[in-house]
Amino acid sequence: MVRRAMTLLTSAVLLVGLTVAALAIPVPYVVASPGLALNTLGEIDGEQVIRIEGQPVYEHDGALSMVTVQYSGGPDSRMNLFTTLSAWLSPTQAVLPEEAIFPPNTSAEEVSQTQAAQMDNSQDAAVAAAFNELGIDYETTATVHAVNEGYPAEGVLQSGDVIVEVDGKPVADKNEVVAAVKDRSPGDTVRFLIERDGQREEVEVGTVASDSGDPIVGITVEDTMVFPFEVQISVGRVGGPSAGMMFALGVMDRLDPEGLTGGHRIAGTGTIDPEGNVGGVSGVQQKMISAKREGAEYFLVAAESCDQTFDSPVTGQIEVVKVETLKDAVAALENIREGNLDDLPRC
């Protein structure tokens, strides 16, 4: 009997030990939790989130808050199975495959750099979209973003070059550059008038056929906006493109004598392009929790993200308004100000 009891006790200890060891094993998952909610009309570290110079600005009551998701884990700091299971059981967290946030063979530092670039681009797009909505004119330039190795442009064009003309014809944006190059035939030479370090020069670049047969020179071109006055947006170390819509609304509110919120607390998430199109994002359920904790009454979300709003722990506790464009968001805020809640488009 004593031997049998010792055997059972030893087995139990081994089982507990193996279970504890298994729970401590790092696993390739990422946990998404509610993150920061930041009022774009307010301050961060004692400075306005949106600072405008060279134009009259206004301050109003209410809030237009961007909301974020906080991610834990990743290839450089994997969580253990116990923590992951606990998050899976939590109503406020979500467990995602690691590759959903960190593509294969990508370090956490590389992801952070990509998100920082996305944040910068989203801010420029937000200012452009706000200016378009307000009828404020600005200029665009076509700028070389990257030169692909092994293509004709390598060693001739550089990142940061502003393309002024293609084959003697002025170009104002990347679409015009692409169209001008595609107007040639593979093997042709294209003349670019570029501006580099404040100096203009003309260069010639050959073309080769792309996979689709179109002529290309091997560059990536992006639009750079030149605004008539300075708009700076500072949000600390937050990255990614999902605050674009709220940035655009924040810029509009600072430039509008009447304001957009009517004193209401609004939060939201969605990307934006210079034309004002609002795009879907991930992590909406966690962002809704952040918005509710911040005291938001209304939550603006891209129409294509509506399906993420149905199962949030705060569903039914905050009014969810779907938008497809910045114009839709502005119209929704007008209805909120005037109390026309029946006219709000909901998910």
Automatic annotation (TrEMBL):
This is PDZ domain-containing protein. One of its GO terms (biological process) is proteolysis. Coiled coil: none annotated. InterPro entries: Lon_proteolytic, PDZ, PDZ_sf, Ribosomal_Su5_D2-typ_SF, Ribsml_uS5_D2-typ_fold_subgr. The lineage of its organism: Bacteria, Bacillati, Actinomycetota, Actinomycetes, Streptosporangiales. It comes from Thermobifida fusca TM51. Residues 116-198 form the PDZ domain. GO terms for molecular function: ATP-dependent peptidase activity; serine-type endopeptidase activity.
